[in-house]
Design a protein that fits this description.
alpha/beta, 4 helices, about 30% helix, globular
Length: about 160
């Protein structure tokens, strides 16, 4: 599926490779989706997801996290601090919000990208910027010392079946 590529600059100056897929002309714009991939992955592997959502009227943005894909950095998979990933997602969400004319923005995180997305959602400076969070096989677990009610709730959310 055709898409545009570009580079965003992270807060620390690291260049981040991005892809953007847009709905076909004539479709009503409904919002935007920001995709965050998992460890050892890259944004290009989500073209099928972008295809589905663009057919629904969403603009889809994805980045290669530092140390992944075309945002390589020092070495494959390397990052100085896990929070840098959440900061990098914020840079892409900012772009999505600015280009979206007030329509809703959602974040989809897969695997490690699910953990990054949750970290971003907890830390984001303006919670109203992102309407919802979708997680696919998120890298999350329940700590044994969490209150029983939290353990039960999270186990249902993380493993609903």
């Amino acid at each position: 599926m055709p898409h545009q590529t570009s580079t965003l600059t992270a807060a620390d100056g690291t260049p981040l490779f991005t892809r953007t897929w847009t709905p076909e002309p004539g479709l009503s714009a409904r919002g935007a989706l920001v995709i965050v991939h998992g460890f050892g992955d890259h944004s290009g592997r989500f073209a099928h997801v972008a295809d589905y959502f663009t057919r629904q009227g969403y603009t889809v943005h994805a980045l290669d996290l530092r140390g992944h894909g075309q945002s390589r950095g020092k070495m494959l998979g390397y990052f100085d601090d896990f929070n840098q990933h959440a900061d990098d997602v914020d840079v892409l969400v900012t772009r999505a919000v600015e280009q979206n004319n007030g329509r809703p923005v959602f974040v989809l995180g897969h695997s490690m990208g699910g953990l990054v997305s949750v970290t971003y959602a907890i830390r984001q400076p303006s919670p109203e910027r992102v309407r919802g969070l979708m997680l696919s096989a998120p890298l999350l677990d329940v700590h044994e010392k969490a209150p029983l009610a939290v353990q039960v709730l999270l186990r249902y959310v993380i493993h609903p079946f």
